[in-house]
Structures are given as structure tokens and as C-alpha cells.
Amino acid sequence: MTHRVNSATADVASLTIHWNEVGVPCIEPHDEGSRPMVNVRLVIVRGVLQLLGLAGTVVGGITWITGWRHGHGLITLGLIVYVVSFFTRNVSFRRSEGDLELSRSHQSTGEKALQHAESAVRSFRKYAARRPAAALRLATALDRQWDLLNDLGRHEEALPVAHAALETWRQVVEQNKSRREYLSRALSRVVVTLDRLNHDAQESIPYTEEAIAISRSLVAPYEERLALHRTNLAIDLRHLDRWEGALPAAEEAAAIYRRLAATDPKQLSPAAESAKFLAVTRRHLSRAAEAVEATQLWIRHERALADADPARTPGLAEALSTLGGDLRNLHLDEEALAAYLEALELCRTVDEPRAVADALPPVVHTLRTLGRHEEARPLEDELGTLRREHPPAGVHVLRIPSPDQAP
């Protein structure tokens, strides 16, 4: 079964960085046209500060007149306190509490981190109800809560959180279109959670299609995300046996990854997977010649990976063997033999007898087809020896006793 690519978890670090860029100040000016919030604690704090400021100013003035040399300093302190009281007008204790809980969540792990995240969500939800501009805080806290639930495997609880985060990010994007990238990530979180809960693929498609539309509207650095969403859409459509619909998505994903891999070696692995998936899709649709083209692209990526890391050699051998099968379907036996032989030689280099045993049959069969029986015989003998010495896992040999051995 092909699993959907999870991009949501990979984005946690970038969201945290973004949060730090926003900062965690506890004083924020009101938006133009917004109504001041009524908060009893704020009124009390502001009143106490003003009383202290006035008292300090009056007492300082009196003591200064009476000759106390520090009286002028008390006057200055009283005036400062009085002026500071006016700046408490826009202080939000609710926001401060949410910031503190979210910070504690990032400093903790497991259930403890989740408790702090849930507390931050509650605080920011009350704050955002009064201040729509605070939706960004709430969205970030919800993302943190989803990440933790996902890490803990509590996907049933994560689903409503993913939906709540999605709706909150929609509000954020309405206020600031530059946040569309995070809306795309929120959509991906919903898709990932639905997949973890084994929901019908049809349910995920609208979210994936919306994420694709958003990714298309973003600039070049987000092409990788577009390719990821196109791959997810192709997977969903394939699960629904809608192979014709999956083909354009698979083709676009492969084309994007091919372009990215040309300049970024880190993209070679997903590029190889996307080319492999494209070959499978074309083969299923009986587009044999186009399947060969996709398989050759897969080989190109696997060869680059194997050059950088010999541990990837089995992947290259698999791709070459697949190419051999595609070429035989087109009755191109000579070309197929060349691919099979290269795959066989690669299997020999990794010193894996069972891999060699798997690579030998197509070589032998193709040689027989081409009438090259003398070349096929030693390979058949080698295959027989390997299968005796290294039988496939799970295969048991039944030995029938001879008549003189029978009881």
C-alpha cells in the first residue's frame, strides 16, 4: 500500500521559527477602529499604578519643600509610575498566559507538552474571540497541539484539532494573504490525519486539491510542496481505481521533482519514487512505450543516488530489471537483455546471493528467447546451485524418500 507523504510534521521547525519572528511581547497596540477591551484586572492594575504615582508625586513634593533632599527623586519616580499606568491600557493577560503556556509546551515533551499546548489554545481562543487579529496566535497553538497528538499516535483527537487549525488559518489568510503557505500546511495536516485514520480517499481529495491550488499560487520555492500534493492526489485517485485521473498528477509531480533534483541532490530520492510511481501508472494503463520512458527516468535518478551512496545499488538494480521487463513487453529483447545483465552484475557487487538468484531467471529466459542457449546453460546451473544453497525465505523443500528408505 502506498502511504501519503506527510509534510505536516516536517514543517514544525519552520513554524516555530516563524513564531519567534513574530515575537512574544505582552503589549500590543489596538488595531485602528477596534474597541478597547474591558478587563477588570487591567482596570485594577491601572488604578493602583495611578494612585501610587500620584501619591509618590505628592509625598515627594511635600518632603522636598520641607527640606528632604531625596524629595525630587520621589517626585520623578511618582511621575514615571503614573505615566506607565497609561501603557497598561493595551496589556492582555490572556495573551500573556497563552504565550507562557506555548513556550512551556516547546520546552516540554510528551503529555506534559500537550497539556501546556491545550492550555495555550484555550487562552488564545478567548483572546481571539475579542481580537480577530489574534487568530495567528491561536492557529500556531493549534498546530503545536496537532503535532503533539500526532506524535503520540492519538489521531482521533488530532482530527478535530486539524480542522480547527484549518479554519483558523483561513481567518489568518483573510487578514494577510502572505500566510497562504501555512494554510497549505494546515490542509496537509487534515489529509495526513484522515489517512492515519484510514478514511475513504474520496474524503481527502477536496483538501488536497485546495492545497494544490494554493501551492500553484505561490512562488518557485514552494514547487516541492506542489509536487508533494500532486503525488498525494495521484495516490488517492489510484486507491479509487481512477488511474486515468491519477496520470496527470503523477506526470506533473515527476516533472517537478526532476527539475528540482537537477540542482538539489536532496530531491533525488523523492524524484526516483515519483518516476517509479509514474512508470507503474503508465504500465497499468497499457502505455508501454511511455512506461519505458518513465522507468529510464527512474534509472537516471537511482544511478545518481548509487554513485553518491553504494547502499542504494539494490534500488538501481530493481529499476534496471523493471526496464528489462518493459522492453520485453515491446519485444525489444536485445535491449531488455542489456538491462537484465547490468542488473545482474549490480546484484553480484552487493554480495547478496538471493538477489543474484532473483536476477538470473529473466537473463536466462531472454537468452533462450534469443536462441543463445549455450550462454544460458551456465547461468541456469548457477541458478540451481544458488537456490539449493539459499532457498527463498518461507519456502520449504519436501523430500520424498526412495523406496529403500520408506518405512
Automatic annotation (TrEMBL):
Positions of the UniProt region annotated as Disordered? 387-407
What protein does this entry describe? Tetratricopeptide repeat protein
Query: What is the originating organism of this protein?
Result: Kribbella turkmenica
Question: Repeat: is it a keyword of this entry?
Answer: no
Record lineage: Bacteria, Bacillati, Actinomycetota, Actinomycetes, Propionibacteriales
The record ties this protein, via InterPro entries, to: TPR-like_helical_dom_sf (IPR011990)
Pfam families, A to Z:
TPR_10
Keywords in alphabetical order: Membrane, Transmembrane, Transmembrane helix
The UniProt transmembrane annotation reads 43-65, 71-88
